[in-house]
Specification:
InterPro entries: HAD-like_sf, HAD-SF_hydro_IA, HAD_2, HAD_sf, PGP-like_dom2. By secondary structure, this protein is α/β, with parallel strands linked by helices. 36% of the residues lie in helices and 10% in strands. The protein folds into two domains: 148 residues, Rossmann fold; 66 residues, DNA polymerase, domain 1 (Orthogonal Bundle), CATH 1.10.150.240. It is globular. The N terminus is likely disordered.
């Protein structure tokens, strides 16, 4: 496997037949909204939520992320209480979520060329509805979505492989092999999940991401705008 890189090469890294996308921080610019929410919840206890803390729980199921934050900051809350407080803020913030640069072009291109595409997120159904409420038509292009925090079939959240394995199984015509699936992620836990499922992963991380957190990705890009479909045997963009 070629080493990952921030400089796209036209040498094909693999041939993908199916594509699965993460949602938060990858297709939707929601990570800042999650951070604002956490800041408001923990701030009432005089606590500060750092980037390092966020990095450790990005991509996890909601309950797992809540437990991690409570433990790290020693909050006097249960996971259920933390999530209830967060949910009230999410209802306010999530409907404002915007698509990330390059997301719409890539997804519409793959859909146009009949490449099977799906979503695999650590989020919940209620939050997904809030975040996508302004983008219903765009998200209707995906064949299905697997939401780890709501789907009973997902026993373990990212970085476990469950969510990607289940998303692959639910295609009308599932991929012949895990390595035929190309995934897109922004978070280290998501990359580990996809790779544990045996799939290739393009990582589009936050600019602050430490280099060691990127090493498991097949390819690292600074933006979806930099992705070239032919790098993975997919139809090239029109000239």
């Amino acid at each position: 496997m070629p080493a990952n890189s921030s400089e796209p090469s036209m040498e094909p890294k693999a041939v993908a037949t199916h594509v699965i996308f993460d949602v938060d921080g990858l297709l939707l610019n929601t990570e800042t909204l999650y951070t604002k929410t956490t800041d408001r919840v923990v701030g009432q206890f005089g606590k500060k939520f750092t980037w390092e803390m966020k990095l450790s729980q990005m991509g996890m199921k909601g309950s797992e992320a809540a437990a991690r934050i409570i433990e790290q900051l020693e909050l006097p809350l249960t996971s259920e209480e933390y999530l209830r407080q967060s949910a009230r803020i999410w209802e306010e913030l999530f409907p404002s979520a915007e698509l990330m640069p390059g997301a719409e072009r890539l997804v519409r291109h793959l859909h146009k060329h009949r490449v099977p595409i799906a979503l695999a997120s650590g989020g919940s159904a209620p939050n997904f509805e809030l975040k996508t409420s302004r983008h219903d038509e765009f998200f209707s292009l995906f064949s299905h979505v697997v939401l780890a925090s709501s789907d009973p079939a997902v026993k373990n959240g990212k970085p476990a492989p469950d969510v990607y394995q289940i998303a692959a199984e639910r295609f009308a015509q599932p991929p012949a092999r895990p390595e035929d699936v190309l995934t897109f992620e922004d978070a280290p836990n998501g990359v580990l999940s996809a790779r544990a499922a045996g799939m290739h992963c393009v990582m589009v991380p936050d600019a602050r991401m430490p280099e060691e957190k990127k090493k498991e990705a097949t390819l690292v890009l600074s933006s979806l705008e930099d992705f070239r479909p032919e790098m993975f045997g997919l139809p090239a963009y029109d000239a």
